[in-house]
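Example record

The entry below shows one chain as it appears in the dataset: sequence first, then structure tokens.
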Amino acid sequence: MRRRTPAWRFRRPRHCRLVSRLHPLIAGFISAAAGFVAWAAFAFPTPTHEAWDADSWWYLALPALGILSAVLGYLVPVRVWRWPLAILVGELAALLLIPRNDPGFILFPLAVPFALVPLAIGFFGMATIGAVFARDQKWDPGVLW
């Protein structure tokens, strides 16, 4: 009878081991709360109560959310698509919950594919870069899934 090889011999190389420095639920809550707070903070000074009408949204809030996405990708380098998605869910919740002065809410379905999806792609790229740095700068397809 052949002996089975012990499981410890099949360990992943050091650079492929998943080191989560933060619990994924906490990271998801942080990213969703950051998206909500960022939208709320930058939406109120504008007359229509929409954050993308403020100039500071584009050069303060979005880079800060991108950096947060990269940091969360570094701290929790597993399934990094969750952090940008949670940021956008927080922004979407704020968009729906904050009272608005704009009667053009009928254009809301256009906002999702033309404004929020490109942001998600950019945040996803930042989170992936953070996850690659967490894995000793070696690309591993496990970062994504």
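Notes for this example: The radius of gyration is 19 Å. The mean pLDDT is 78.
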